[in-house]
Amino acid sequence: MTDKIKRRSKNDYINNADFYKALVEYKKACNEAEEAGEEYPVITNYIGKCIFDIANKLKYRYNFINYPFREDMVSDGIENGVMVVRNFDPEKSKNPFAYFTQVIYYAFVRRIQKEKKQLYIKHKVMENSVLHGDAVTQSEQGGSTEAGHIDLTTDYMNDFVSNYEESMEKKKKPKQTKGAIDKFYTDDDESKKQE
Predict the structure, then answer these.
(1) Which of 9, 29, 58, 83 is the most exposed place for a label (fewest CB within 10 A)?
(2) Confidence (pTM)
């Protein structure tokens, strides 16, 4: 008798049941090592390949596809996935694919935020050097000339800088909430207190 081979679809690149079993076995090995006072075991090749595949597939998602630093995003995702392998709790969830996809997704988002911050800093440094006359550009003959050739007024960079600065301002402003004592005062009471 031949065993029936279950065909997976093109989109089903990880068998969630096998991934779950591998994580349960790894968690068991970690618990045994902890009880014995030994170091945690290294993750298996299968678990590592699953994390690698999730990160590589996620980089093709529509909201990540156009970033030039996608390989850095994948590296961060794999690193974060490997770091949290022991945090996966088989008793709470039987879906490791979703767990690791979410971990890797947020690693991608953090990388995008870091890269945007670096781009903002680079732009501001270049802008300040042009304003102060410190920037030097290469002329077509290979010599250097004083600043003046650098165009920092592109629409993309102006929009990027203004959006980035607005988002930073929103993060800095604390939410205005009334304290418990302020609820008892009206605006008229406030003016009387100040007099």
Answers:
(1) 9
(2) 0.69
